[in-house]
Specification:
single chain, 185 residues, 6 helices, 2 strands
């Protein structure tokens, strides 16, 4: 059985992110957890841009750029407005987590644009970034959830699924429900 291009894309994305995840020499050292969170936060958008390049998807690259920009600006604005201290006292701009916002904006872009196959590993890595930020006491759970909300909302608003010619839509009129399948050729 031949591997479909969509499957190869998901595997390439997963491989890229896994390599980035294990780039730190000692993942258990506290100082390396922070470095690993930084590396993964950057690896997710880089992997998403690699996907757009692999698919020659200029509109996708533009949507990712807009999503990351909105996510970053929103997180920075909320950091200034909320003015919440980090658990370790290193910053007075802990809410929302910028790392989580960027990681989840990237993961949501991948899932919305290219589907769940590459989206699931992206979300797992984004969740791991959030967990690392809690482990290093840079953020608490509320900060991570706030970053998730900012990132997911940004990409959800600005990313459209890649049109592959097939669209499935669920519908309901209150009395009945069904699926509408549209195929374009």
């Amino acid at each position: 059985m031949a591997i479909r291009p969509r499957t190869r894309t998901g595997l390439r994305f997963t491989l890229f992110v896994v390599i980035a995840a294990f780039s730190s020499l000692d993942c258990n050292a506290e100082s390396n957890k922070g470095k690993q969170a930084d590396a993964l936060m950057l690896a997710l958008p880089a992997g998403a841009y690699l996907l757009t390049s692999n698919k020659q998807d200029k509109r996708g690259a533009w949507a990712l750029t807009k999503s990351l920009t909105l996510s970053t600006i929103s997180a920075l604005a909320l950091n200034t407005i909320v003015d919440k201290d980090a658990p370790n006292g290193s910053s007075s701009h802990a809410f929302p987590s910028g790392h989580a916002a960027i990681a989840f904006a990237s993961a949501t872009f991948v899932q919305r644009r290219y589907g769940w196959r590459p989206g699931i590993p992206a979300y797992l890595v984004a969740a791991y970034v959030g967990w690392l930020r809690i482990e290093t006491d840079d953020h608490d759970t509320a900060d991570i959830i706030g970053g998730m909300a900012v990132g997911i909302t940004s990409s959800y608003l600005l990313t459209r699924p890649l049109d592959d010619g097939v669209r499935v839509t669920a519908w309901s009129d209150g009395k009945s429900a069904g699926l509408q399948i549209q195929v374009r050729w």
